[in-house]
Amino acid sequence: MSARPQPRSTAAPDAPPQGAPGASRGTVPVEGSAADLSPGAATGSQRATDQAAAEAVGARRPLDLGQGGPVAASAAAATVGAAAGTGTVELGLPGLSASMFPAFDEHHPPDAALVADCVHCGFCLPTCPTYVLWGEEMDSPRGRIDLMRQGLEGDALEPSAVRHLDQCLGCMACVTACPSGVQYDKLIEATRSQLERRVQRPRAERLMREAIFRLFPYPRRLRAVRGPLWAYQVSGLGGVLRRIGVLDKLPAGLQAMESLAPKLSKAAKLPERTPAQGTKRRTVGLLSGCVQGAFFPDVNAATVRVLAAEGCEVVVPRAQGCCGALSAHAGREREALAFAKRVIATFEQAGVDTVVVNAAGCGSNLKEYAHQLRDEAGWAERAERLAAKVRDITELLDELGPVAARHPLPMTVAYQDACHLAHAQGVRDQPRHVLRGIPGVELAELVEAEICCGSAGTYNLLNPEPARELGERKARAVLASGADIMVTANPGCWMHVATSLARLGERIPVVHTVQVLDASIRGIPVRQLLMTALEGPGTTLARPSASLR
Amino acid sequence: MASLPAPAPAPAPASADAGSIAGLAERLRKAVGVGRVLTDHAQLRTYECDGLTNFRVTPAVVVLAESRQHVIDTVRLCAKAGVPFVARGSGTGLSGGALPVAEGVLLVLSRMRALRPVDPDNARVVVEPGVINLWVTRDASPHDLAYAPDPSSQLVCSIGGNVAENAGGAHCLKYGFTVNHVLGAEVVLPDGSVVHLGGTAPEHPGYDLLGAFIGSEGTLGVATSLTLRLVRVPEAVQTMLVGFHSVEDAGGTVSDIIAAGIVPAAIEMMDALAIEAAEAAVHCGYPAGAVAVLVIELDGPQVEVDAQFAQVERIALARSAFETRIAQDAAERALMWKGRKSAFAAVGRISPAYFVQDGVIPRTQLPQVLSEIGRMADAAGLRVANVFHAGDGNLHPLVLFDDAVEGQAHDAEELAGAILDLCISSGGSITGEHGVGAEKRTKMAVQFTPEDLDTMQLVRCAFDPDGIANPGKIFPTPRLCGERPGPRTGEHPVQAAGLGEVF
User: Quick check: A418 and A493 in contact, CB under 8 A?
Assistant: First the structure.
């Protein structure tokens, strides 16, 4: 499977006709366009109107707007389906063959009133990752709302519609961009639940989904694979398998899973209760997460240290399980509700003022509990109370204000907005405040900061090809920023961007926001932080990918 | 925007028509590639309207062109089959200009989004039609250049669509419309031939065919490449927000500023309802209690801007402005504009549904016309929010209604139409920048005499004798161009599709 974009024809748009009809894409590379300039380059005195327009989609400057240029290699397969024999890149999973009627059943169909809020203005288009990749209406937020509306109006749900709805990353950038306040998050979640319950998917896809949801939401199972995974990594078995071509024969989803596995380190157990240093300001409970806990234990350890240093007593309840984010975002409603109830009960018992989350996807899910459990007798109010206590770690730190002394960390940081933090929770300024509060830290803003990196929960496992294309865009943006280190707030983004960098033959140090603050508070020298972040836990093993060989 | 119940999808015609369309789709697939031709019903329905949702038509075929060759092939195959085609960019138009034809092809250009490098010395850039308006300024800004036309949808709308509709924007008052900023275009004519209109020089001898093409709403051909003029970013930009207790005072201020010989970069006006919506959407912090606000922007050399700014302040004060706020930095300026630019869609937050209207009146009539609109709205029992480019008299009344209330959509439509009649009777026009499209074609007969319209038809027929390029738009009664010499069998396809009569 080739993933690298081929060099495009350099013919000018006004060049004479060339070749057989349709044989050449005839588009122009965007070399020399502003997006190739470093973000620090002089941009002249930009019109305030352009600035305002850029902000409307969540981009911080006009320069950050989604780039033009040719559509992605996966466009044909995304548009008409791999089965149509397009001879182009396959998306990795087989499509459906039968349509479904009625499109939705009675249990929480997408809300017709929310669908009607969409005025079709199109302001969501430039911020939608799949529209940026493929440039067609069905894979845009308003197009997907059209597909839902068709179902509500009595059309059958066609296999094509299911594919386009599946292809949504659920990044919620459209929610940020929408001037009419359309709650696309609620619409896609309701639709996903309907699809998950009712669509009969091909066997291979079903097995893949089952495998994912039997593994990732279970911290204990994830911890169990740490041993074999560590052995696999240190033995160099992966290299051997790749050389003899075994890995290439795995389904795309499993290949993606193999390549995403982060480098492991020893995981120290978190104490159940950590006292506040100095005057106690608050009692907080930490959601330790599944992937975060199993693969990024250092992030949790740093979170506990930072919170304690800032005057918080930290409780890490033992009994907590998965918060249900992966399940909820994939439409596995019953599973998600069961997970949610357990988390609510656990943190109620913990008796904390605030529930702190350091993984963007989990935080956004906890904040959604009130909506998710609205129909569950005896739970709706409890869910609402808990959801009101939930804060992202940077939200809480910004709210509390610093008390611990910060030591300088002279370095340039590329802060990567995790979609479930920036778009789903609207937390964009707080992490930047926290980072700017560290002496010596310079922030480098990424181009296309509002566009998803392609990780998107389980998306990079279920839709590896577009995820890879988006990951490489993000990796290039990180490299172009010239930053010394990438900082992110979500384990998914971390693994995915690091993997994408590795595929480009590049490595840069990656850490979580809270780890930077932890290093600053503990007075760790910048060199050591950068070295640890390059070599340490969580960093994907740098290795050439199959497509580069 | 209105969300009238969508009509049931048209039943597939059982005649030979269906066969010919299926055949055409196959030929299109061969020509442009399987992955770029859509005939799946669910997919087609996502293309059934543009930014105007109360007109919906499902096209028979959608072609997602990625190159000029795809456009040429598609147009040639349509011409050969006598099948109508409609070009579409980002689908953000507000007059239904990209409304598909049921038995036709929708030619989507959103994938043709390449920009060539900016030529800073000659202040121009060559782009494909699917390029987004704001990308041009994005690429030009490192050279201290900008693309002047800035419709409020500039971060979504395509240059191709801007050219088709001759798009304007807040800054047209000083810098002119799209037609003033396109130097040349490569155009595929409705018979599939490729011509170059204009060029790279500022002026060209002979007929101004480029001028005729821009604003022709896709009825004369499809642009595949456009050479745009860039303007130097001014030395200074100053923006002020002025609050008034009456719409008349705000309108009067606009007239006074222009009468004083000042040409601001922009004067935008919003009334109380529009302010409420914008505040709800983007928290732009407009003056509390304002019945109308003006966003006034002056640009140019610093000394000139400073002098004129003081003058504008005096004029506003004389018209009882109660609060004048001057943007101190780019962030404040951006916030002032954010309120204005998001106002349309933001109205969705204060009303279940609304119609966006677009009309022009002489600037001097502003206070009277606005009072009259208020009176008409009261009489109809509906609310009208006003957002507009006040400097050139381009009104955008937004007629608010509740589509759940029986008959209200109809009343709102009537009121929107009556506002247009008021524009015409005040000496203005039925559209400032949104175009005629499908929405306002009946109003063309009010604004123009039959002779005027026939003359326009002659131009259309010269380019498109078979009437296959975006039929059913602009003209009140779709007409054909008369039989040409040469063999022809059977009924004219456009006539057969019920789209026109022989003219």
Answer: yes
pLDDT at A125: 95
| CATH code: domain of residue A297 | 3.40.50
Structure tokens at A142: 């308003």
pLDDT tens digits for B152-188? Answer: 889 899 999 999 999 988 888 899 999 999 999 999 9
pLDDT value of residue A93: 47
Is the model's pLDDT at B498 over the cut of 70?
no
CATH fold label, B236-425: Vanillyl-alcohol Oxidase; Chain A, domain 3 (3.40.462)
Q: At A540, which CATH number? A: 3.40.50.11810
Taking the domain B16-108, which CATH number applies?
A: 3.30.43.10
Per-residue pLDDT, A237: 67
User: Is the Cβ of B274 closer than 8 Å to some Cβ of chain A?
Assistant: no
Residue A135 lies in a domain: yes
Query: Which chain B residues have a beta carbon less than 8 Å from that of A29?
Result: 114
Question: Within this chain, do residues A255 and A285 fall inside the same structural domain, yes or no?
Answer: no
In this complex, do B342 and A56 lie within 8 Å of one another by their Cβ atoms?
yes
CATH number corresponding to B124-232: 3.30.465.10
Mutate to test the interface with A, among B74, B107, B113, B396 (most CBs of A within 10 A): B113
Mark which residues 342-381 of B lie under 8 Å from A by CB: 342, 344-346, 348-349, 352-353
ipTM attached to this prediction: 0.89
Q: Could you list the residue range(s) of the whole structural domain that residue A514 is in?
A: 405-548
Written as six digits, the tokens of B81 are 């089959």
Give the closest-approach CA distance of A400 to chain B in angstroms: 25
Q: Do A120 and B49 touch (CB under 8 A)?
A: yes
Mean pLDDT for all residues in chain B:
89
CB contact under 8 A, A21 and B110: no
Query: Helix %, strand %, coil % for chain B, to 5?
Result: 40, 20, 40
d(CA A458, CA A327): 9
The strands making up B105-108's β-sheet, listed across from edge to edge, are: B37-38, B61-64, B105-108, B85-88
Q: Does B40 touch chain A (CB under 8 A)?
A: yes
**What are the extents of the domains in chain B?**
16-108, 124-232, 236-425, 442-496
Mean pLDDT by 10 residues, chain A (549 residues): 37 34 32 35 48 74 73 90 51 62 93 93 94 96 97 92 94 92 95 90 82 81 72 68 64 66 72 96 94 85 97 94 90 93 95 96 96 94 97 97 97 96 95 97 93 92 92 94 94 90 90 97 96 72 40
Please state, for a pLDDT cut of 70, what percent of chain B lies above it. 91
pLDDT at B501: 53
> Please, what is the end-to-end C-alpha distance for chain A in angstroms?
12
Cα Rg of chain B (Å, integer): 23
* A102/A177 same-domain check: yes
Q: How many CB pairs under 8 A join A and B?
A: 295
Q: Which tops the pLDDT comparison, B469 or B476?
A: B469
Q: Which amino acid is at B50?
A: D
Residues in B closer than 8 angstroms to A62, CB to CB, are 134, 137-138, 141
Instruction: Among A23, A55, A125, select the one facing B156 at the smallest CB separation.
Output: A125
CB contact under 8 A, B348 and A119: yes
Dihedrals phi, psi of B323, to nearest 5 degrees: -150, 130
Cα of A224 to nearest chain B Cα, Å: 44
User: Which pair of structure tokens corresponds to residue B263?
Assistant: 């040409």
pLDDT at site B178: 97
Judged against a pLDDT cut of 80, whether residue B125 lies above it is answered with yes
Q: Are residues A163 and A96 in the same domain?
A: yes
B3 CB neighbours in chain A (<8 A) are: 116, 119
d(CA B328, CA B337): 14
Q: B115 CA to chain A: closest CA distance, Å?
A: 6
Q: Which of B132, B297, B344 sits opposite A126 (nearest CB)?
A: B132
Answer yes or no: do A346 and A410 share one domain.
no
- A221 and A306 inside one domain: no
Q: Which residues in A lie closer than 8 A to residue B336 (C-beta atoms)?
A: 48
Question: What local confidence, expressed as pLDDT, does residue A260 receive?
Answer: 67
Element (H, E) at A228: helix A219-235
Instruction: Please indicate if any CB of chain A lies within 8 Å of the CB of B281.
Output: yes
Q: Provide the token pair at A149.
A: 């509306």
